[in-house]
Amino acid sequence: MNPLTSPVGVSHYLLVGAVLFVTGVVCMATKRNTLGILMGIELVLNGANVNFVAFGSSYLRESSLGLDGQFFALFVIVLAAAEAAVALAIALNFYNNHATIDVDQADELKG
Amino acid sequence: MIVLAAINWHSFFFLFFALVACAAAMGVLFSSNVVRMAAYLILSLASTAGLFFLAGAEFVGAMQIMIYVGGTLVLLIFGVMLTAQATFVSMKTRAGEWVVAGVVGGTLFFLLAQAALSVDQWRTPRTDQAELAAIESKTSAPLGLGLIGVRVDKLHQADERLKQGMSGYVLPFEIISVHLLVVLVGAAYLARTKKRMTDVKAEGGRKV
Amino acid sequence: MELLPEILGWAVLLPLISFVVIFLAGPRMGKAGSLAGWVATLAIVSSCFLSLCVAFPIWLVHHWPHDASHGAVAQHDTDGEHDTDEDHDAPAHHDDGNTDGGHAENDHQRQQQAAGGDHDKRASQQRHDEVAERDSSNGETDHAENAVPLITGDWYELGRFGPLRLTIGFYIDSLTVCMFCMVTLIASCIHFYAMGYMRDELHDFEDPEVTMSDGSQLIRPGRYHRFFQAMSLFSFSMLGLVISGNVAMTFVFWELVGICSYFLIGFYVERTSASTAANKAFIVNRVGDFGMIIGMMAIWASLGTFAFGDIDGQSGIFSLVRPESSQHALVVPDGMVVSGAKSEVGELVDSLPAGTSPEEMDAAIAANIPQWRDPEATGLKGGYGYWLLVIAGIGIFCGCVGKSAQFPLHVWLPDAMEGPTPVSALVHSATMVAAGVYLVARFYPVFAPEVLLVIAVTGCITLFLAATIAITATDIKRVLAYSTVSQLGYMMMALGVGGWLAGTLHLFTHAFFKSLLFMCSGSVIHGVHTNELPLMGGLRHKMPYTAYTMLIGCLAIAGAGLPFVIGFSGYYSKDAILEQALLFGNVNPGFGKFFFFAAAGGAAITAFYMFRLWYLTFAGEPRDPHRYDHAHESPPVMIRPLLVLSVFAVAVAWPIPGPSLSNLLEQSRPAGTLADTPAVLVNMVWPNERDSHASAIKIPATLIAFSTALAGFLLATVMYCWKKLDAEDVRRQFAPIHRFLINKWWFDELYESVFIKPTLWKAKLFAAFDRNCIDWLVDNLALSVRRFAVVWEYVGDRTIVDGFVDKLAAVTYSTAVSMRRIQTGSLRTYVVSIVVGMVIVFVLVSWGYTWAS
């Protein structure tokens, strides 16, 4: 099926969302910079949002979630902002105490 | 030229935005400079907003740009600025960890893709493309009203069981509002100016 | 009359109260406890007063004794006539100068004539007053001799076991009243005496006979109050024994006097001799009590009652054994017949048809009893049950053998002289040892003639045995002790040959003069501080009161007097004994004569050793000048009782018309004993005591008594006063006999080798077994347990328990250590873990979902 000509379905959106999600996860797993990890988190949340919106879009299927999907996406965005703020505060705190933002240096809880 | 006429512009733009978003995400992943990572992230998020618009969630798309890109990312960039060091470059991930992350991520992607493609209803687009134009995509007012308790998008709910949800999202709205307040107060407290460690080792930055 | 038991009960309880008071507050009473003596004395004097109150205003008024020893029992008709049979008495019966009269217990006499004629309304009192007529002497009584004037009853019932009632009861007849007066009077005198004698105990006492391990004499605090505590308890026990109304109560008080004697003999407890003497006394008494318990069991098992007299309609022992139906002759009671005829009863019950009720069976048995009792019908001597009666009697007598120091249990009394002299005077001469004789007198109706024979033989042996030992004794108290044993033998023998009145009369007179003698000897000992006769001599110059009161006592015990005219108290009682013995010998020629000869010979020996004692102590030259110089007369508190008692020793048995001692005692002669009683198992007849007053008996007996006493007196005088015959020479001449006598017939050595040595040997055997076998076992058991514990500690505790615990801890530790590696502290690892977990869950859920659907 030619993607350029045929209309898209939900699964296309879901694929995009999956890519974003996985990329974010890998980013979280690999970045040593705290802020890099935060960015990974943003990507993850973003991927989830894409899913939500896709399921809530009435363009893509008849029996969609409707506005519920968009509601959830809004909430996620707000929470992501809040969480980003806190995470940043933690990162700054960490930087102030350790003069570095390398998460590998934050292993004082090592057993 | 037949191709041009037969192009579903919706799909074309979808593809465009999707590719940009994915590419930018890859860029975030593979870039080692945190500032560049931030830039790629902005790009990715903006493309995602475009995707939202295409999906008919214009308010959410707008919010994505305003809040996510304009707020959160700016915050991130501030953070980057505040924690700027010369040791950026040296924070490299070891190859083993790349492999592990790659394997795990790949597995996860495989699963998610398989899940996405498994349901036939999701793969096929909406059959009645003609009525697409009639669908209202101005969603900000309904969203707002829904947040304060009036679900105007579902005025006549046929299913008796779903009538419960007609009260809208008042409670989550309130909770999130308070949550935001608390978070911001907390974050402000956490990130207040404290005595900074001045003599700092260059490599690794260990506390002395 | 109703008050009589209560008054006597109080007389019994007053010494007990004094005991309790002194027990609780003894050392604090007065200076060093001197008030204790006054408390005890006051108590016993009050008892004496109460006893005399009973005797004179009450008893004599109600039961005035007429000249009863030859005539009727005191007769109390409503119109108060005199006894009617004085006319038909044989001529020799009414000799006033003879044993007819008696001296009342006190100096003032009530000459009232039969003022009592009142019939007492008390249901529990039995007075059967009838004329007892007499005939000639051979075994016939014309009229029924009835129960004596007495009061029986119970104060308190302790328990009821089937038909047996255990009670605290009383049995009061004139014998009881006289005993009360005698015991309390003597006890009062001795308490006063003891207050002076025991003055040494008021301060720390140095005991000359006890040497400590470092060679010094023992000095110990005085025990004045302890002495009077024991004396009070003894008084209580003795009075309780006298008044007791049943066998069980008698036994209880029997044992109580035994234990008081133990305390008193062992008063100087630090002296080994004293404490062993106390042990000996108690143990020998217990040997006798063993027989007594057997007798008690026989009576209880066959008669079902312990009471002496009839109480509330239930027959007592005396009525069962001598019922009215047989004119109070001795009859085997129904219970004993049935017990004896057990095989016959069994056959009878088997022969009855099945289904007969118990009442019918009892009736069938009862119907056969007369047949079983009949000797001819059964072919057994005495019928069934006679042997049981004999056994019961002998059993009870065994107790008396122990208590009254008869052969073979006489060995304790001489050793009992280790106690202080007041103890010897009260306990071991007048009262406790007399308790045995009293019990024989009390139990007299129950004794079958065979038992009386045993009693007589025992008494005879004893009197002779003790008299011979007394000849050679050198300790003043030992002489008196053996004399006591001998006189007790006299009493037993008298009772055994049928002389009830003779025996009891001698009991009373002996009590007075023997306690007098002991107190005099105590006075001597107090004066010269020694007991040994060879260290005395010529003391009558230094201690005249003591000497002459002792002389009165010696005369009394020897039975001195003018024949047929008047005599000391011992004269009358000894005469009565000899009369009865002679009568018995006449009636039973052969063995019977032996008793008379023994009694007469004993009288001679008695006179001899008593005057030997007197001469060696008070006459002649002092053999120890040092002691003679320091000798002094005793203080007045000790002399006055001597004077009082000497009055009694002289006059207590004088035949005063009316309330003389013998008349009073005759009142309580058990019914049915004034009959000639043939024995069943031996061919002997026990004669009637009245016949002993026939002149054919009386005159020879009196003359022989007088001559034997005179002979003994003369021999003693020749040897010890005029020193014509050298005592030392005599001793050498009869050296083997002397050795035999002075070693007390080797009795102690015999008992030691027969009883004591085997017991000790057995004890050693068991001790060796205990040590070697049992201890070995126990020790080795303990040792093996210890060894096991050591091994187990290693194997079980260390290896197993500790090993397990340690292993567990090690495993936990290693697990924890290995799990530490998960916590890397690295954020990125955690993220990867989250994702991996999510993947797994996702897979599981989706695949599981797939499978399920």
Q: What class would the helix/strand composition of chain A place it in? A: mainly alpha
Output the CATH topology of chain A.
Helix Hairpins
Determine the strand fraction of chain A and express it as a percent band: under 5%
Helicity of chain C, as a percent range: 55-70%
Low-confidence stretches of chain C at least 5 residues in length (pLDDT < 50)? 68-145
Total DSSP helices of chain C: 28
Round the Cα radius of gyration of chain A to an integer and report it. 18 Å
Distance between the termini of chain A: 54 Å
**Widest beta sheet: strand line-up of chain C:** 1-2-3
Q: Which CATH class of chain A?
A: Mainly Alpha
Q: What is the CA-CA span between the terminal residues of chain C?
A: 121 Å
CATH architectural arrangement of chain A: Orthogonal Bundle
Give me the Rg of chain C, rounded.
38 Å
The total count of strands of chain A amounts to: 0
The largest sheet of chain C is: 3 strands, antiparallel
Task: Name the average pLDDT of chain C.
Answer: 82
Task: Please state the overall shape of chain A, judged from the principal axes of the Cα atoms.
Answer: elongated
Binned strand content of chain C: 5-15%
